[in-house]
């Protein structure tokens, strides 16, 4: 049985919007039902909840290739970014380097730091992709943080230089942050050189809303002054004397202030088990080929592509510019094709449950829609 046959919506055909909303992996529905059964038991069900949290962290660490002590789940990628922004020792004159290909969640926390005298430098993309030399030109002795998406939500370009970028950032004492929301579960996500990373679980990881895989390196943990503290982030929160000092949990566990979203963790446990059961190298190769085919077909229609050409940049996303992107999205939906449209562009995305028939449906529907 192919991956596609395990996803009822994918079998219908024309689903090309994982970059916005992934289809739940096999086992997710049953996992959420298990959560509800355990929740229905009241307090005794908590033992299973905590066990699932432990299992989910181990599976996420396995997918990342990271120690489990450095891997946790936060409520959202936006929460992870805001915790990072609030927990570094900023001074007036410090610099953040970001890019023009970032989702708002990876821009707004840094723009807010301008009120504290922090300079925000935006690296410009070229042809839909980012170049290492443009980053290094923007990095100076004032740079405290560089942040970049592993895959751009806008153009779909995969960024191949995180390790070299990390070296450049560390040379001036800075931190490298990577938003892997549009990559993890679909594309390689190398951790070499990365200090802080997050990825939402409801897209390519095929889970639910309400959780984000978050990684923090041991080196960053040593210099991290956690801004928000809760009972879940400290050791022995229920000690007899709680009005004096406290000790944060070791590793990334200190980032979690309160009770996790257990329903989302049950779901991601199931989806990660399924993803890790695949031969990911084989699945990625097949999906990458589909993505390149999609780009070629859209280019043949004469559409102004945002997605750069070249294997080094291939992810699961192909985008093109169009002033009526939202209208095209709606009209494609009338033909049974689901993509994302708005912000002057249309975006299609290819995951492991996609096949050539989806591409054909999109191209045929696009030809009809554009002919109007």
UniProtKB/TrEMBL annotation:
Keywords: Aminotransferase, Pyridoxal phosphate, Transferase. Residues 15-361 form the Aminotransferase class V domain. One of its GO terms (molecular function) is transaminase activity. SUPFAM superfamilies: PLP-dependent transferases (SSF53383). The keyword Amino-acid biosynthesis does not apply. Pfam families: Aminotran_5 (PF00266). This is Aminotransferase class V-fold PLP-dependent enzyme.
